Amino acid sequence: MRHKVLFYAGVGLLAAGLLGIAIVVMAQPRPRLGDRPLRPVVTQVRYQLDIRLQGGMTVEKLAETMPRSLPYYKASVDMGTSRAVASRLAGFLKVNGDMKAAEEGLQATEEVEVFEASGAVFGADMGRLWAKIPEQPTRGLTPETAKTQAVEFLRQMGVDIGQEYTAEARQDLVTITERGGRPRRIPGPFQVSVRPRLNGYPTVGGGEKAKVFYDDDGKIAGCLVVRRALSPDKTGELLDVREAVKRLAEGGALEHLTLTRPDRIVISEISVAYYGRAAAEEQGFVQPVYVFRGTATGTEGNETWRTPYMQYVAALKSPPESVYEPPSTEDSDEKVEGDMSAEGPEDES
Amino acid sequence: MWRRACVQMGRAVLCFVVGLLALPGVAVAGDVDVGVEWINKFPDNPSCDRLYNRDNCAKGLYNYFKFKGWKGRFCNGNDNAWEEHWKEASSGGTDGSYCDRCDIAMIATHGNSGGFSFNSRHDDQWLSRTEARWGDDDDLEWIILDACSCLASATHANWQTAFARLHTILGFDTNAHDKRTRGFWFAYKAFRKKSVVQSWWYACEVTEGSGTDAAAMGVYRPNDTYSDRIHGKGSVARDSSSPTSFWYYSHNCD
Fewest CB atoms less than 10 Å from the CB: which of A282, A329, B50, B176? Predict the structure, then answer.
């Protein structure tokens, strides 16, 4: 009799367990395919573009000071120079191993890499670079000493920084915040960006830069050099700055930025610079651009947001190519869900 | 007869209970999932302009993780990218079936310091940070918000409520650009045993430049997530269901 009771108790336990699982599974939120009424469409918003240049400058006055034409440069990848820089860098970092082609189309060892798209060189001791949250500000290094050391280091690595360049030292920003408490700010490690000047104009963008990264102890931990070989091509006539402002206002203000449309953009500075594409991108020509700097503000619900703003407009009347890397292919409304297959083997160590 | 049946039933109950207890362990050991969404076209959202590379950016990460053996949970584009996939159930979302089911997830779209945008109106077109609560439903450890200013330094603390066992948010302090290969470069470095944060700085350094500051935010205490590697590539901090403090890091890409 006792065993009969125990048997039915076991059946009951199993049934209760299965029922419990069923309830938990049923209670899980499920994707709903449009079974709810749609929210109304947001009212059309257009941004306002204001030009408020510093020092009483106006676009009219600026137009008189801007160059009428500027040379632009043919850019090519000098893999020989890149490999030489990479080799010196590997020596500095004490990296062992051969430079062998990897599947992603770049030459790589664990710590020193050359990008085929641009000839850019990245090398670092990742055990020290960005490796931990700094506990205290870097000691024994000032912005000036960081710049001096960085320029010297780049020359030792064989990077041609030219006669005319700008060097800027910056520190990352680190903040520790207790929940609901006041933030504790710690200046992060230094980095120095060294950029050549072309025809007296600065270079901007992800390319034409040589960056030196310091660790938390103020020692050099790595660098990224994105320098293409430049040769003078032609001299091109420049767009009038007033026309550039017009293009910005007509829709170019948010081109290539992933920023939601602001209510207002205030431009406080307009300048000319040469644009270099980033390490991962190909570039045929380094050409002049108008650089617009200012702030963008907008609202989202009850909140107002504000962000620094920078945008480029091609300065040549007939640019040899688009300033930004063009998109590759037309996209589609793709939907892949529950594709649980893995395509390849587990990664190598 | 009943005695024998009783013994067998006892074994069955024991197996059932052991199986139940083992389930979470199996999930941790066997399932590493990736999910991405991206939006290039915003015909129904006047707050957003057309973009061109969000698809390649997100799919670069998705395909790389899949190639390395991770399971693809979802990869949705344009109108199939829904705000509710990233929103907490209590706010009307279904994140428990989407981003929270992944170990790493990425959304590539437009944004600002308050959140990020969608074209589709399921549930609506704007994911506000107050609607996010990530990691509580399932696995999610790392989330990438590849959109302008989502992690603006001035307002980053407002994301604290989104951390519910989530480890780290990666994004931007300032404006960012519509770059094609960032997801790929992040994955490339992450699979070479670099930390999630190191991989993000690297991916931003090789795709961005002047005027862009990348950013990351994570749990500081009780379990510091700054040095997390992706699963299988190094140590991962333990989940913190109620973090008491956070780190925030802004990195200049000029």
Answer: A329
Q: Angle at which helices B182-190 and B196-205 pack, to 10 degrees?
A: 140
Report yes or no on B25 lying in a domain: no
Three-state DSSP class for residue A202? coil
| A341 close to B71: Cβ distance less than 8 angstroms | yes
Are B34 and B142 within 8 A, CB to CB? no
**Does residue A310 contact residue A293 with C-beta atoms inside 8 Å?**
yes
Q: How far apart are CA B177 and CA A286, in angstroms?
A: 19
Helices (H) and strands (E) in chain A — how many of each? 5, 16
Q: Does residue B24 lie within any of the structural domains? A: no
Q: What are A232-290's pLDDT values in tens digits?
A: 999 999 999 999 999 999 878 888 999 999 999 999 999 999 999 999 999 999 999 99
φ and ψ at residue B82, rounded to 5 degrees: -115, 140
Q: Inspect the interface and report whether the beta carbons of A122 and B232 lie closer than 8 Å.
A: no
Q: Backbone dihedral region of A243: left (phi > 0), alpha (psi from -120 to 50 degrees) or beta?
A: alpha
- The answer to whether residue B46 is domain-embedded is yes
How many helices, marked H, and strands, marked E, lie in chain B? Answer: 4, 10
Instruction: Tell whether B91 is within 8 A of chain A (Cβ).
Output: no
Distance from CA of B140 to the nearest CA of A (A): 16
Convert the pLDDT of each residue in B61-95 to its tens digit: 999 999 999 999 999 999 999 999 999 999 999 99
Of B149, B243, B252, the CB nearest to A170: B252
Task: Out of B152, B185, B205, name the one closest to residue A307 (CB).
Answer: B152
Q: Is residue B26 part of a domain?
A: no
Nearest to A333 by CA among B35, B58, B77: B77
What is the number of structural domains in chain B? 1
Domain of B208, CATH number, reads 3.40.50
Token output for B21: 């207890």
ipTM score: 0.87
Residue that the structure tokens 């901090």 belong to: B237
